[in-house]
Amino acid sequence: MGIYDDLNIQRVINAAGTLTAWGGSCLPPEVTRAMAEAAQCFASVRELQDKVQARLAELTHNPAAYVTCGCAAGLYLANAAAVCLHWGKAFQYVKAHELAGSKVLVYRAQRNPFDWAVRQLGVRLVEVGYPNEVELPRPEHLSAQIDQNTVAIFYTLSGWTARGVLPIDEVIAVGKQFGIPVIVDAAAQLPPAENLWKWTNMGASAVSFSGGKDLCGPQSSGLLVGQADFIAQVRDIGFPNLGIGRMVKVGRESMAGLLAAVERYLRLDHDARARWCEAQVQDGVQGLNGVHGLVAERSFPNEAGQPIPRLTVKEPGDLNFSERLSQALMEGQPPVAVLGNGPDGIFINPMTMVEGDMAIVVDQIKRLT
Ligand SMILES: *Cc1c(COP(=O)(O)O)cnc(C)c1O
Fold it and tell me: Fewer Cβ atoms within 10 Å of its own Cβ: the N or the C terminal residue of the chain?
């Protein structure tokens, strides 16, 4: 760990999950190997891009794929592509008033800080529905907002959005009926691996994943999959072509790394991995439940709604527990990153932990409570 020692930075046990602030995920050797190889010589970036993207499309059972520098960048480019398709011209010829008048429909229940990826493009986000379900969401609520300036419907899949939304298949059906592309933020919707093609097969125009979360690709990579004509438009505005895609360019080492990561992800024994995660959670329950008045239990699914169990540790009624313990764990040796579960509990997520980490975390919690 030379670089971290040189900079005097401690290794953190990441028990929080695939959070960007802790590095997202660790890169397996086949990914770093592919990155080092790609970085060490020159090649045509366009040719590399074409071949990597064709291979990614084939591997993920999608009509087309595009490598981005993160899920957010993929959403930015996909919405820019929707603007081009709507006005029937290349992005640099879209007039300022056309761009400012372009409407992207978004559920109010799904507004979140990642939607800057769309806002900063300069389009208008038009909110639909209510966060709650006082009135059940209906397709008419969405279609009523569609007019001649609507360029896309933007939909976020995650475990933390509010409830006042139509299910994605119904949103895609409305999009199809009115000829409006549906663009999906699926940053952390893995596992299962089949999600890589699930929503495009339903008819979504583009679905954006983080490369640096569970895929274990380069942290600043993303995978955009979608329909052939839509992704062709993304490719037109994207790096290495000049224009708005340039500021979200992707190095050749990231393309090679993401391809290696997707190949690995599709080969991975996901059942064995799920069993390993279950075993870690059981070790945590056995090590902590009832100790010093703690309640330790299995929690399911994870924060993104994905089928990975977590351990939750609570001191019921102690409203400072989460903050106190999270901070103490971070100040420990080695530091441990966790997520809060309300004021009186924390979550410990095995998906970013390695063999031996859970024992350390259990010992630390025993010592600190
Ligand atoms: C992580 C995340 C993003 C951002 O992904 P990057 O790959 O870091 O750009 C966007 N949306 C959601 C729902 C996320 O969880």
Answer: N
CB-ligand 1 contact for 190 (6 Å cutoff): no
Write out pLDDT tens, residues 65-86. 999 999 999 999 999 999 999 9
Report the percent of the chain where pLDDT is more than 90. Answer: 100
| Residue 288: per-residue pLDDT | 98
Cβ neighbours for 9, distance < 8 A, ≥ 6 positions apart: none
Average pLDDT for the chain: 97
* Ligand 1 centroid, distance to 146 Cα (angstroms): 27
Query: Contact at 8 Å (CB) between 76 and 120?
Result: yes
pLDDT tens profile 219-242: 999 999 999 999 999 999 999 999
| Tokens encoding 305 | 């709604």
Instruction: Give CA–CA dist 149/163, Å, rounded.
Output: 27
Give the full edge-to-edge strand order of the sheet including 345-348: 295-299, 310-314, 345-348, 339-340
Q: Which pLDDT score, from 0 to 100, does residue 1 have?
A: 61
Nearest to 311 by CA among 294, 324, 302, 299: 299
222 lines ligand 1 (CB under 6 A): yes
What whole-number distance in Å separates Cα of residue 253 and Cα of residue 32? 9
Closest CA to 256 of 2, 41, 18, 33: 33
- Ligand 1 pocket, residue 244 CB under 6 Å: no
Name residue, tokens 């000829």.
179
